[in-house]
Amino acid sequence: MAGGLESHTDGGDKRCQAMKGDGSQCSRKASEGSEFCFQHGGEKGGKTKAKGKK
């Protein structure tokens, strides 16, 4: 596996659009039908905002 960040436009897999507290983008895959991963609100039970978002 390559060490770089994956683009959300290659192959149709979208990356979570949440920003982490350090200003970097979440590296998880977005849940189907959402712009966010399960941890940032992409599925039932997830958070509604990324930590550190102002």
Automatic annotation (TrEMBL):
<feature type="region of interest" description="Disordered">
    <location>
        <begin position="1"/>
        <end position="54"/>
    </location>
</feature>
<feature type="compositionally biased region" description="Basic and acidic residues">
    <location>
        <begin position="7"/>
        <end position="16"/>
    </location>
</feature>
<protein>
    <submittedName>
        <fullName>Gas vesicle synthesis family</fullName>
    </submittedName>
</protein>
